Amino acid sequence: MSNASCAADLKAAYNEVKLDPLMSGDPRYVDCSSARGGEDVVKLLCTRIENSPRPMAQLISGHRGCGKSTELLRLVDDLKRKNYMVVYFAADEDIDVGDLVYTDLLMAIIKRLERAFADEDIQIDPRLSNAVAMWFAEVVYGWKDEREVSATLQTEFELGVSTPISLPILSKILAKITGQIKTGQNIRKEVRLKLDPQVYQFIERVNELIQAAIPKIREKGYRDLVLVIDNLDRIVFRVLDDKTGRTTHDALFLEHAEQLKSLDLHMIYTVPISMFYSLKATGLTGAFPDYSILPMIKVKEEDGNPCSEGIDRLYEVAKRRLDIEKIYADGVVEFLADKSGGMLRDFIRLLGYTIELAQVRGGGVPITMDLAEKAFRRLVNEYGRMVPDEYYKLLAQVARNKRAPNDEKHQAMLYNLSILEYMNGNRWCDVHPAIRELPEFKDIFRRE
Amino acid sequence: MYSSDRNGSLAGDLKSPPWRADISAENREVLLQISAFIRLAEGFRLGLVKCNQPVQRRQMADLLKEMLVGEVQIQEVDLKEPVDDLRAAVGQLLTEGGQTGTGKRVLMVFGFEQSIPSEGSVPALEGLNLSRDLFPCDFPFPFLLWLPDYALTRLAREAPDFWGWRSGVFEFVPDRMLMTTMESATITGMYPEGLSLEKKKERLASLEGLVWDYSEMKRGERENRSYAAVLDRLAYLRFQLGDYPESRRLYNESLKIWQDLGERSGEARTLHNLGSLAKASNDYPEARRLYNESLKIWQDLGERSGEARTLHALGSLAEASGDYPEARRLYNESLKISQDQGDRRGEARRLHALGSLAKASGDYPEARRLYNESLKISQDQGDRRGEARTLRDLAMLAQASGDYLEARRLFNESLKIRQELVDRSGVFQTLHALGSLAEASGGYPEARRLYNESLKISQDLGERSDEARTLHNLGSLAQASGDCSEARRLYNESLKIFQDLGERRGEALSLTKLASLEEEQNDIKAAIDHITQAEAIFKLLGAGHHAEEARIQKERLGRRLGRPS
Asked: Is A234 in Cβ contact with B130 (below 8 Å)?
């Protein structure tokens, strides 16, 4: 092969191994559920909705870079194919996840629903729609006269060039409130103060809209309405109270679980993985008995023996993207799969590193084991930067016991992926393979 | 096909890479990795580049440009200020810069470390975590973020979602030769106070780069010695720039190293500097403790010139606390050592200090005698700086005795020397003093002109405390000319700076002025509030005279309000 085409191949290959989540239906998608040691999470969530006569709220969680967004997009697609009307949105598009309270989320939900109904041409009785709009106008702004409200909003929206002015009054008021919540620091607080004491009525209003819409949704041939909210796990983790250890995550998912559950439609919320490891995990699973965690792809068994199923699945992930036989020497992809610990994003990253290193070496293929080892060294260094010294002792214990106790430090390590979690009937943990190579870890591990 | 001959040679594939002999093998490899990354990547890709030293960073970035010339168009964004939102700030600067040329784009971003302090919370990192999904839309091309070591570590730990998005971390290792060059470059010009703010910031960045280089290196005794010296220099510069907490942190770090090395004179010097820092923060007991600790070491070592310097500092501390006999005793002790040592410059300094003390005690003839003695030595020694300093103080003495003509003559003589020396900080002081002289003789326009001129220099030098003092004086002028709103603005500005710097005396003086202004405007309540704050500070500082004046003013205000306080 000439060097030029070789380089072109490497370039094409490199751009096949991007870290972005796959859209549903992407031919590069590989179903890894068998290797995650549990059932297919998407199928499970889907089946629960199909089998539930009543609307239900479910949780989905998983580690950063484990393929969660990809799976969620697949779920949306599955539901659509099964004739559900799906409203999907990423929380961070609508809400400031750096400073979020549950009423913000409820506002975002009603805004999204209202838009979705309009987009699907689902007509809500204008009397109901206006009554809901006036409820918000009065609670939030103290406006009582419908004509005045209508005129005020009309002017405001004429000033904003891009918004179509023919919107119903409900869309305008919702857009106004959500806009203020998202951008204005002070007004955000005011709006919240006004909505918080009225939350049951607030939920009542949302449910009225949903109930009015459902028959029309059915008329359109849909089986039901499902709301999927992604990226809620990006809510900035902050301790709100040092004494009780109450966090921003607790405030939303534990303290307001009732409110989040009380909407009359099927809901799927993403939850930060660390909540499942906290002492409050039982509170969470008590409130939301229907939850699914996407574990890592298992590349080793708990006893340390290789898990060929997981390696095979990852091999398949690589094969859907790259001409593996041409680019990699025998055993290299398997080596990288093993060293990724079954974390999809690190596996893809390692593939990218090897291609880059091959380019440095002049573009020769196939990529051999020495480059794979070098790529892994880079990952090891990166993990070394992430881990504060005081964690090595704990990591050594996790490597021995294969269990991570429910405390703040272990939560943090599960969160930053120094500890990975697998399913095998039971959950078990191990340190990331890159951690095992760090001199600080080796030292302590030997002495433990 | 596998071509083994290419596999071994690193540079083989590049068209005549612009290697310079002084680039280490490790850093060459990093350059090759980055260029491979750039060549391969399409669309948004995040590359993180670790490089501590601004000069090294520049060098590496230029080499990359040379390596990729004709292939890609590398755009640079240099953030000059801390930002809360990296994406928005970079986007803004990119739009302002406009897009030039065509072909594949690559973006290199520098200066984000200014948004990442070494300690404390970092809103910019939180924001980064949240906005990672928006980067690919705004920057559909490779995005290389350059950071020093500590900042990259903080990013990895505190913005895990953004970090998780990386497609490569490229780490340049410290370049020993470059470090040596930078170390000597930051030693020359021992007076950072004379540098413009921009130059100070440049020096700051170089020194910080050195600190990060040293802190990530395996250090032997020699390296530790250099490291501690660099820390001391950086701490002094931080002190100059008014960042006292950071200065203290750095001095404490170097103190530990000097102690570990068993290098006692380094330890004594750093303790002395920590003492000066405590004094500047008005913590006199702590300053005394530190000076005494330093003094003890000088005495143990028999290092007499160090001893003389620290005694002098203790003297000026006693003087600041109003204990003149003790101050005189200490200055004399220090003077004696300098004379024994034949240290003429030191002698001139101690005489000068004794002169100022005599002046403070109201003994003007004695002060003049001492100043003149000091002046004579400085002139003999060709110590122009010392000469200019003493001329200025002689001028102030003349002013205090009411001889304005003589005062102006002496100030101008001092000014001339300082201009010749390009001693901008000295020029500031003299212009400022000439301003006070003009103010005292009722020449308000002249005073305003001189203050404004000195204000400009202080701002240019980034000397915030000088700036605050000048703003304060400009405020007095405005008040005297009846421009109350301008006066209020100026007092508030100076108050804000004094508060930022923790300079409590200045703060109290500005509060007093605000109170007098408010009294003039019959805003009695505000005046009482301000004068009460001022009184509390003066009491805290042990400035009895000022506190008493404040108390009297408060009582008068209380009566005006109709109820005695």
From this structure: yes
Q: How confident is the model at residue B19, as a pLDDT?
A: 59
Which range has the top average pLDDT, A94-108, A153-167, B60-74?
Answer: B60-74
Note whether A89 contacts B: Cβ–Cβ < 8 A.
no
In which residue are the tokens 């040329």 written?
B101
Interface membership of A439 toward B (CB under 8 Å): no
A163-217 pLDDT tens trace = 554 678 888 888 888 888 877 778 888 888 888 888 899 999 999 999 999 999 9
| Interchain contact A369–B (C-beta under 8 A) | no
Report the alpha-carbon distance of residue B457 to residue A145 in Å, rounded: 61
pLDDT tops 90 at residue B190: no
Best interface-test mutation with B: which of A235, A356, A369, A374 has the largest number of B CBs within 10 A? A356
Write the DSSP symbol of residue B310.
H
* Whole-prediction pTM: 0.74
Q: Which residues of A touch B153 (CB under 8 A)?
A: 385
Instruction: Tell me: pLDDT of B188 over 80.
Output: no
Which residue in A356, A382, A385 is closest to B37 by CB distance?
A356
Q: With b meaning 16 or more CB within 10 Å and e meaning fewer, what string describes A84-97?
A: bbbbbbbbbebbbb
Q: Under a CB-based contact definition with an 8 Å cutoff, are residues B479 and B514 in contact?
A: no
Which tokens go with A148?
Answer: 């005045």
User: With an 8 Å Cβ cutoff, is B156 touching chain A?
Assistant: yes
Of A234, A355, A365, which has the smallest distance from its Cβ to B40's Cβ? A355
Q: Is B14 on the interface with A (CB under 8 A)?
A: no
Question: Which domains occur in chain B, in start order?
Answer: 10-173 (3.40.50.300), 503-565 (no CATH)
| Cα-trace Rg, chain B | 28
- What's the CA gap between B73 and B57, in Å, rounded? 18
Is the complex ipTM higher than 0.90?
no
On whether any CB of chain A is under 8 Å from the CB of B548, the answer is: no
**Whole-number Å distance between alpha carbons of A271 and A118:** 29
Any CB–CB contact under 8 A between B37 and chain A? yes
Decide if pLDDT at B21 tops 70. Answer: no
Q: What residue in A sits closest to B6 (Cα-Cα)?
A: A362
Cα(B119)–Cα(B53) distance, integer angstroms: 20
**CB pair distance less than 8 Å for B43 and A345:** no
Contacts 24+ apart (CB under 8 A), B312-318: B312/B349, B312/B350, B312/B353, B313/B272, B313/B275, B313/B276, B313/B279, B314/B288, B315/B353, B316/B353, B317/B275, B317/B279, B317/B284, B317/B287, B317/B288, B317/B291
A18-68 pLDDT per residue, tens = 887 777 677 887 877 777 776 678 888 999 999 988 899 999 988 776 778
